[in-house]
């Protein structure tokens, strides 16, 4: 449902831009009201040509609106005779849905955790949430986003997190992203180095233990005892 919502909003934004560029936005915002269907001419009531022209444009706009909504929503778009009425109905329907999605996305951002994902995947998840919020016209202060990203880091980033918080560094999300990717590389190098040292140390320990057992085998040395030759 959320993907459909974002696609609809994006499509409607694109449609509004096109209408505005062609000076047709007044048809859906109500400023371009329908002229009278008929006029009086030579003491006779005749069709109003301006109404005919207005109706043609309005019908085309309404067709565009129907084209960008999903088939499942078409049943809620029936019975509207003007593009303005259809636009208002769509706005009323999706405004409440948008509000619910904003709360869900904000909660998702503040509870997001890196877990076992790579840093790039983690930051991509953050970017996706922010992009969805942007579509819904919801702006999150950058400092809140930075704090949410730091909060979602695992324990191996504790020193990094503490350094940021203790120094009260005011950084942008782009700066933080670069630092985190560098920190991930540093941690990976440290882990590989520790693993290499562990691999080297283990055979040495085994060798020393083996040599020790070799010296202990056979006759054991007893302090103060006379060692008789065999």
From TrEMBL:
Q: What's this protein's name?
A: Retrotransposon Copia-like N-terminal domain-containing protein
Q: What keywords tag this UniProt record?
A: Signal
Which residues span the membrane?
none
Taxonomic lineage of the native organism: Eukaryota, Viridiplantae, Streptophyta, Embryophyta, Tracheophyta
Signal peptide residues are 1-20
Domain of life the protein comes from: Eukaryota
Where is region (Disordered) located? 206-230
């Amino acid at each position: 449902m959320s993907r459909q919502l974002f696609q609809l909003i994006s499509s409607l934004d694109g449609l509004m831009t096109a209408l505005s560029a062609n000076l047709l936005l007044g048809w859906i915002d109500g400023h371009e009201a329908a002229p009278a269907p008929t006029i009086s001419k030579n003491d006779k009531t005749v069709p109003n040509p301006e109404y005919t022209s207005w109706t043609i444009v309005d019908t085309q706009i309404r067709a565009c609106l129907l084209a960008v909504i999903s088939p499942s929503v078409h049943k809620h778009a029936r019975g509207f005779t003007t593009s303005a009425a259809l636009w208002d109905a769509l706005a009323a329907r999706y405004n409440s849905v948008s509000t619910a999605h904003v709360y869900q996305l904000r909660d998702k951002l503040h509870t997001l955790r890196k877990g076992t994902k790579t840093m790039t995947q983690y930051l991509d998840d953050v970017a996706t949430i922010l992009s969805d919020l942007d579509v819904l016209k919801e702006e999150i202060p950058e400092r809140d986003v930075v704090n949410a990203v730091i909060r979602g880091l695992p324990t191996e980033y504790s020193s990094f997190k503490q350094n940021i918080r203790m120094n009260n560094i005011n950084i942008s999300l782009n700066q933080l992203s670069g630092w985190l990717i560098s920190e991930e590389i540093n941690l990976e190098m440290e882990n590989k180095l520790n693993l290499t040292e562990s691999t080297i140390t283990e055979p040495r320990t085994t060798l020393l233990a083996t040599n020790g057992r070799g010296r202990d085998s056979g006759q054991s040395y007893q302090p103060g005892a006379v060692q008789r030759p065999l």
